[in-house]
């Protein structure tokens, strides 16, 4: 890609256009000069207690006051009752590992991390949670007991992770 | 109103830096027009399946109306990797409802207009963005890998079993002149490739692909009026939707949306739910990753739960087996230009049923029925379509 960019700069000067030849096919490519940088604003206004809970080391989620269904990730509305009367409850931070994978080829936005293990666990309250799993993924398999720990990630902000329970 | 596929077009899949988006799309459209023996003026409506984002053009239907001189209504459809089948559904229902007589369905994707890291970044978002990608960087192979490891743990499948799917699909891909990879591979090659998302290695993953495919759909009335002999009927189609967030799913050894879509499609086509493979001559299943093909065998009821892996071990999905699967190389070897894949599967159904496939990859046609299974995301959307030589 670096070579490609150099060729484009050279060609703008020499040839008059931002073009370069494709390495594999030799076909001429116009190299788009308009860059698109995307970063979204995601509303967390209605699930703010979840983040407040994490600051206190708690894993909170919503429970419908009418039908009692527990939602994780927390959500504002109960689709069963079609009302939004939710209470915030604390989840048990323990459960069972259901599946996992180790991400070797990372997206560029995760390039600062070493290969990481993503797992899904079923918490004892019945809901499932997706998070990074701490430790050697070769030492665990589905059925392993895990706990949820709130910790500060490399980027500097709080996040939850799954940690195998010894024994 | 019964709906038939009366013409098909398919470009070479792979690195198509030799053409731009409209040129690539036109390659497939031109072939489809020629094979259906129709002109632009015969088309009542056209549907374009394209996921986009990685390629420069966004208003593809309008771009193609201009390039190909199509002066009628159009729409763009997106359903992640099932985009092509969703586009077919729009065309099919437009005719079935009496809204149109002849519809062009185009699937096109030029994924290699962006560098690979950008594509990885974009595809990782085909789930529940905030709870999966933003915080935990789940890539697309990783979503399916979560299913693969669950399947391995539950049914004692191995990485070698998954590699067997790659070996089969490369074996047939080598016989398909439109495939991205036209080279057979050995089990060792597959097993020795580097890890992408454990347990998946490079050869367990479908590639990033440029390509286009097109079909012309027509009503039963038009088929009669024009005296079209070469056609296949769309017997039925089932559609299912899964949760966005994988943690909201009860099982990781099945895609509920696919099993749901299959049951709908079988029911509508009058196919026996207990042994549907006995009434089909073959299938194209969504093998974006090797384990996905094995799970598809089970979701489609080609094998009982936990026994899909036996089908590949015993070569039952090669020609001559219980049911031949992905004789075009599948997404794995043919390539996976997201918006084109579902339409490409329809093209393959047409070719197989009319015995027009290349030597060595033509199935024996006895029942006159072919199934396609096209999954968007990780079972976020599933389309199962049954094509047939006979009208129901």
UniProtKB/TrEMBL annotation, chain A:
Organism domain of life: Archaea
Pfam families named among the record's database cross-references: OB_ChsH2_C (PF01796), zf-ChsH2 (PF12172)
Coiled coil: none
Chain ranges of the ChsH2 rubredoxin-like zinc ribbon domain: 52-87
Domain ChsH2 C-terminal OB-fold: 88-149
Signal peptide positions (record): none
PANTHER family: BLR3430 PROTEIN, DNA-BINDING PROTEIN
Protein name: 3-hydroxybutyryl-CoA epimerase
Taxonomic source organism: Ferroglobus placidus (strain DSM 10642 / AEDII12DO)
Lineage: Archaea, Methanobacteriati, Methanobacteriota, Archaeoglobi, Archaeoglobales
From TrEMBL, chain B:
Pfam families: Thiolase_C_1, Thiolase_N
Keywords in alphabetical order: Acyltransferase, Isoprene biosynthesis, Transferase
Entry keyword annotation includes Transit peptide: no
One GO term (biological process): isoprenoid biosynthetic process
One GO MF term attached to the UniProt entry: acyltransferase activity, transferring groups other than amino-acyl groups
Limits of the Thiolase C-terminal domain: 240-388
Enzyme class, spelled out: transferase
Span of the signal peptide: none
EC number(s) on file: 2.3.1.176
Annotated ranges, domain Thiolase N-terminal: 3-221
Record-linked InterPro entries: Thiolase, Thiolase-like, Thiolase_C_2, Thiolase_N
PANTHER family: ACETYL-COA C-ACETYLTRANSFERASE, ACETYL-COA C-ACYLTRANSFERASE
Protein name listed in UniProt: Propanoyl-CoA C-acyltransferase
Highest classification ranks of the organism: Archaea, Methanobacteriati, Methanobacteriota, Archaeoglobi, Archaeoglobales
